[in-house]
Design goal:
This protein has 11 helices and 9 strands. With 258 residues, the protein is of the alpha+beta class. The chain folds into 2 domains: 3-101, no CATH class; 108-252, DNA integrity scanning protein, DisA, N-terminal domain (YojJ-like (1, 3-Layer(aba) Sandwich), CATH 3.40.1700. The strands form 2 sheets. A 7-stranded mixed β-sheet has the order 4-6-5-3-7-8-9, sandwiched between helices. Strand 7 (216-220) and strand 8 form a beta hairpin. The chain is elongated, with a radius of gyration of 25 Å. The N and C termini lie far apart (50 Å).
């Protein structure tokens, strides 16, 4: 491969430049995926150990180099064990990226039909419900506050989860594509004075989640059976099942910008 230029006595080729750019892109992607997780702090500690190892080898400090090498091995194992949930979330984000979703598209219309059917069952029975549908921003922190379900989304299962006097009745459900990820989750309450004065806890929790994420939240009133939909901090109340379906089709479509 032809040499482009030299840095002192080191020849630089096109392959070297491509190699550096690829490594830089991978490092940037890993750091971006770790943003906001505990794993990023521990990765910084691992980088310090690696830097110490390089300095020890450069200065020919054999004892220090041996200690740093052993500590580095333990650090990597501890990183994999302690931060298993964060690493799983990172891999999940990669799998949910637009590149891979193009090869594994889910039948969105079926998901919407199941959600609307569940909302109708809950509304007819005046069963309170709080259902969050993940869009682009992961709801991993929210789902970890509840109980893992990881079952295929069906109207009957959703209705059963919210049945009164059951352990999972209180709290919200997190939906990811066609799966019920977790139930009995804690959603953040809205601090909007307009809603604090007029809404109950279930509706305030639904609005609060949409203020922090781009999720869509279906709320069913336990008192009246009325169906509401929260998105981007706004609440649309007294919706019919057909209206909920039309809104979800827009919100969950690839072209939806709500």
């Amino acid at each position: 491969m032809p040499t482009l230029f030299h840095i002192y006595f080191i020849p630089i080729t096109i392959g070297d430049i491509v190699d550096i750019l690829l490594v830089a892109a991978v490092v940037y992607a890993v750091l971006w995926l770790m943003e906001g997780t505990r794993a990023r702090s521990m990765l910084a500690g691992l980088a310090v150990i690696l830097l110490g190892a390089l300095i020890a080898y450069w200065l020919d400090l054999k004892t220090v180099a041996w200690g740093v090498q052993k500590l580095g091995t333990v650090w990597v194992i501890a990183f994999l064990v302690v931060f298993q949930p964060e690493l799983r979330d990172i891999l999940t984000r990669i799998g949910n990226s637009k590149i891979f979703k193009a090869f594994s598209a889910k039948p969105t219309l079926d998901i919407i039909d199941n959600l609307v059917s569940a909302a109708k069952i809950l509304s007819d029975g005046q069963i309170g419900a709080l259902i969050a549908i993940q869009r682009n921003i992961p709801l991993d922190d929210i789902s970890r506050t509840g109980k893992p379900i990881e079952a295929k989304l069906t109207p009957e299962l959703l209705a059963t989860i919210f049945a009164p006097h059951t352990p999972l009745h209180d709290g919200g459900v997190v939906i990811v594509e066609d799966k019920i990820l977790s139930a009995a989750c804690e959603f953040p309450m809205t601090e909007n004075p307009k809603y604090r004065r007029t809404l109950g806890m279930r509706h305030r929790a639904g609005v609060g989640l949409t203020e922090h994420t781009d999720a869509a939240v279906i709320i069913v009133s336990e008192e009246t059976g009325a169906i509401s939909l929260a998105i981007r901090g706004y609440l649309r109340k007294q919706l019919t099942p057909d209206a909920v379906k039309r809104l979800l089709e827009v919100i969950l479509s690839k072209k939806g910008k709500i």
